[in-house]
């Protein structure tokens, strides 16, 4: 008898309360029933399945950890499990959701005024309003902290935005985009909620990506784009506030890496039991088992790490370096796991229909976004040595 495929070898899912576990399993069912059958097709066509948004809204997981404004006020631990469940089937869908619920809603939740929160968070929680987060620029990626070139200038009750943003997920169809820009007067970074129909705001779809093809990334151009003071994030005073949003979401990216790796491991384990060569399932060969066990060891280490990370977040003990270490470690191990999985599929590993090719490609995007391996390593390096290698 072939044992059941289960990438949660140490049973970490069982540490959730019965109510939270039910939510986790509801998300799993949604991903298996609604997303898995269409994931490769949408990825191949580089289109986003807009029709799934109302069904996803029924899960009531938008803004999961926020308190008030119609948000469920759940733990960061459950939020991590949900990111993993989504990425386990389709990393593009977990990215769409991470941008909406983490980066866009998180910016408003942490940096918005009471009125802004009341206006934007409830419809975003219900996924009726979609958000995007515009920080990276064509010429400024890792160095955003001191190097933003997009500018804002106050003129009476309005701000004028000029510049470009690159890679902005969801922004081709989002109702609002959070734009981070440098104030020409104070030189500090400020944040703005920019509605899509604002004159001077233009979002153009980025084509020809070889990873996360389902996610719609945009190149945004802001040309004398006028935004009222009422849409400036009232509590965003400097880049420190932008960084607080990223601190909150980076842990989620580590969980996404776990999900991508888990999806690949589970697919490989099932496949090696089904695929026979030399008259026996390939899972019965020692070299194949060694590879599977190496993958499982890495996967289990990743899961226990992010589990502890989220508990620390719930205890309000999470520091930048904690999240950065998990992002570095988990994305590195994810890359290795998807690579081994692809190997175990032989030629089928490069065919989209077996899912693995998609996992291998998508891993490359998670590896780079929300801070590359080098940048997150330098954040940890600074914390443990006391020396900043950035300057
Ligand atoms: P660069 O900064 O140009 O780095 C290139 C290389 O140089 C990297 O290996 C980097 O580690 C290395 N490097 C740079 N500085 C140093 C240093 N001091 N020491 C050592 N090595 C260094 N951004 C958003 O604002 N919103 C989004 O929604 C969004 N979504 C994204 C989705 C995808 C699929 C991708 C790929 C990116 C997305 N991004 C988004 C941008 C993402 O956060 C950046 O790609 C990332 O921060 C890295 O910046 P970069 O690509 O410009 O690389």
TrEMBL record:
The organism's place on the tree of life at top rank: Bacteria
Cofactor: FAD
GO biological process, one term: fatty acid beta-oxidation
Keywords carried by this UniProt record: FAD, Flavoprotein, Oxidoreductase
Residues in the signal sequence: none
Residue ranges constituting the Acyl-CoA dehydrogenase/oxidase N-terminal domain according to the UniProt record: 18-126
Record domain Acyl-CoA dehydrogenase/oxidase C-terminal: where: 244-384
Any one Gene Ontology molecular-function term assigned to this protein's record: acyl-CoA dehydrogenase activity
Acyl-CoA oxidase/dehydrogenase middle domain boundaries: 132-225
Keyword Flavoprotein: yes
UniProt cross-references to InterPro entries, sorted A to Z: ACX4-like (IPR045008), Acyl-CoA_DH_CS (IPR006089), Acyl-CoA_Oxase/DH_mid-dom (IPR006091), Acyl-CoA_Oxase/DH_mid-dom_sf (IPR046373), AcylCo_DH-like_C (IPR036250), AcylCo_DH/oxidase_C (IPR009075), AcylCoA_DH/ox_N (IPR013786), AcylCoA_DH/ox_N_sf (IPR037069)
Entry similarity comment: Belongs to the acyl-CoA dehydrogenase family.
Protein name: Glutaryl-CoA dehydrogenase
Source organism per UniProt: Nitritalea halalkaliphila LW7
